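Below sits the subject:

***
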Amino acid sequence: MKSIEYRNDPLFLRNEFDSDNQWGFPIIKKHSLDLDSIELISCADISSKDTNNLHKGIHHFVDDYRFEGLYSHPYRCINTYSKYRFALTPDYSLYSEMNLWRQIESVGKSRWVGANWQKHGITAIATVSWGQPSSYSFCFDGIEKHSIVAVGMIGCKQSRPSYMRGYYAMLEAIEPDAIICLGTPFPEMEGHLIPVDYIESRRVKRNGR
């Protein structure tokens, strides 16, 4: 590819979606879902040949390496993901050990992937995650107010006060209509919570079994 073509390649620029924030994060638009029947399946367990789990939504509460290709090779997944009921946007990590620019990058990648899915007709629900309070200035951006969002409880039991500070900041920033919660929520978590058991999300009925 010539340098001028590379310079103008949409996959290099990643600037094709509307933004309403200082970081240029694409906007994940709100979707409606029947919240009485929410089931999830891990991205590590989906298959292009799957026919038994298509009524579920896909989650990404697993190690980042399992879904890095959703950003680096974004069009490879479209056909498979389109088969499922909906997809939670990738939960790229916001570890406190990461420099702030890396955390901002993680949020931007997640929003871009979600916006690209929506462009291709996939029902994308924004996954919200946060780190230290320094992340609150960007980690809730790029999500329409009053959306259905998703949060994960995996690994947060040892940092409950920190998790709850971020959770309440999320409620104030997004005012979500509902929160799909993978894992058992803390009793003090407010809002319209839809708990989903993590273990059940990994118990997958395969074709022919």
Residues 100-119 form the longest helix (20 residues). The chain has seven helices and seven strands.
